[in-house]
Amino acid sequence: MIYARSGAEALSERIEIVSPGTGHLHWGTVFFGPRSSKERAPGPQATMSELDANESLVPHFHGVSMFQLFIAGSGTIGNRGQQLKPLTIQFKDHHTAYGPITAGPQGLSFVALRMFTGNSEPVYLNAEGYRDRLKPSKRRNLTSEPVAFSIEPLLRSRKDVSWETMLKGDDEMHASVVRLGAGMTVEGPDPSRSGGYYVFVGNGSIVHGGTELGLWSMVVVENTESPYAIQAGKDGAEVLVLEFPKSDLE
User: Fold this and answer.
1) Is the pTM of this model over 0.85?
2) In the 8-state DSSP scheme, what is residue 135?
3) Which residues does 139 contact at the CB level (< 8 Å), separation at least 6?
4) Model confidence over 78-90: pLDDT tens digits?
5) Which residues contact 27 (CB under 8 A, 6 or more apart)?
6) Which residues pair with 162 in a beta bridge?
7) What Å distances lie between residue 154 and 71, 73, 125, 145, 150, CA to CA?
8) Summary count for the chain: helices (H), strands (E)
């Protein structure tokens, strides 16, 4: 199937939540699926977390591989304090620990994107018995350089389509930035060659089913579908195409 969600629509349903890792009150938004799950189920799972100023999430792992996009605010990740600036892309294999994530004084917003609903509950490394819940994986925890986006008139007037690789694994995992001028269309990757992919709007808008989807909207293309036609809106589009490993579906 192909799933689509408007960023504006999703954010209109933002709620206050209590972080299971810190006990702090912050904000959460669900794009697809449940916010947290224990069992595998059809359909993608995508959520946004918005941390309060200087809030810190302790190191943890999930049972599902994911791309994570740091889209607003600032912060750091890891014990070495790697800087997180918009828009940084992270890929993390299932059962791979990462963190801590610490928000800056203006907070930190990030989205977690998973191709299917699975065992996504965080397992914290300060919890007794966490090692018993680990399973084999490639243990990749990769972060990109921040993506730079175009100013509006430049984006609108682009005459060609460009693809730029931000992360690439030794399997099908691949994160790209695609830049299109106003009304331009480009065919996305063949999803059957990977585990499927997300198209995430980082700047401008795309058109899906006759509807314009703006900032932070997303489309999910499962690997049983044909390649997805990415169509820019009236002001152009800069989108992330985030391809998942095929092995995750096995």
Assistant:
1) yes
2) -
3) 93, 95, 96
4) 888 889 999 999 9
5) 14, 15, 16, 17, 49, 50
6) 179
7) 21, 24, 46, 22, 6
8) 2, 19
